[in-house]
Amino acid sequence: MIQKDTLEARIKRVCDFISHNLDKPMDLTELSEVAALSRFHFHRVFLAYTGVSVTKFVQLARLKRASFQLAFESDSKIIDVALAAQFDSAEAFSRAFKRTFSQTPSQFRQTPNWPNWYEVLDFTLPTPNEDTLAVEIIEFPQTPIAYLTHCGDPQKVYTTAGQFVAWRKQTRCSPVHRCRTFGMPNGDPNTMNEDDFRLKICGSLLTQSHSVEPNPFGVKAGMIPAMRCAKATHVGSHDTLENTIYALYQQWLPQSGEQLGEHNCFFEYLNLIHEVNECDLRTDVFLPLQ
């Protein structure tokens, strides 16, 4: 008899394979071979563990990546986004996109409905294997930043992020490919009222004056203070970032002999969601210490 954890591991392997191969055609025979399951049973097992068919999962993964490209790459052409998502035409892509997210690609690019987007993409994925958490203690240097504060619903963070991206493109103060990108929450969004949630979306500054000119986006200048931190790197979706955060608190901290500092944990985004596949995202998690 195939054990449950073995089945789960096989389906996770398929999900990982899909995430790493969004740019190539995939057929069900190939995916069933990745799962080491008979193609006669593969469909049902995949649906049982994820809640969606494998065909739907592949399309959603491609449309999810396309949605980030639409929202954050204003210069990209819809036909290019469509072809990257393995559609033969912009028309076919637009129909599938609207059927999935209730907005055309053009509408989503202009005013993305992120809460609906989250609802559409809310399906179960197999639990990832628990790898040993690699943690190092570092001295984080004082870092001048520009920041834009997101207030309220965590599901609308990408709207604020889009505004910050637009500001970075219009100014030379914090070019994305030459400067660091941070996220600084005021706490865990899972444990506070939605209206109380705040997230500073930050970029390090190149300018020596450490100032930001008044702008219509509301971006301001600030400073991340120097502090001693534990650092761990999260690999994969930002939606599972809490797994690494909780592992720092639950697994590493009790046996480390360290004491927590005065600041909330914060993140550095080593690459960006519209530039790489979601499975290739790298995010450093910093846990301030005394």
UniProtKB/TrEMBL annotation:
Molecular-function GO term, any one: sequence-specific DNA binding
Any Pfam family: GyrI-like
Domain HTH araC/xylS-type: 12-111
The keyword DNA-binding is annotated on this UniProt entry: yes
SMART domains the UniProt entry points to: AraC_E_bind, HTH_ARAC
Keywords attached to this entry: DNA-binding, Transcription, Transcription regulation
Protein name: AraC family transcriptional regulator
Lineage: Bacteria, Pseudomonadati, Pseudomonadota, Gammaproteobacteria, Alteromonadales
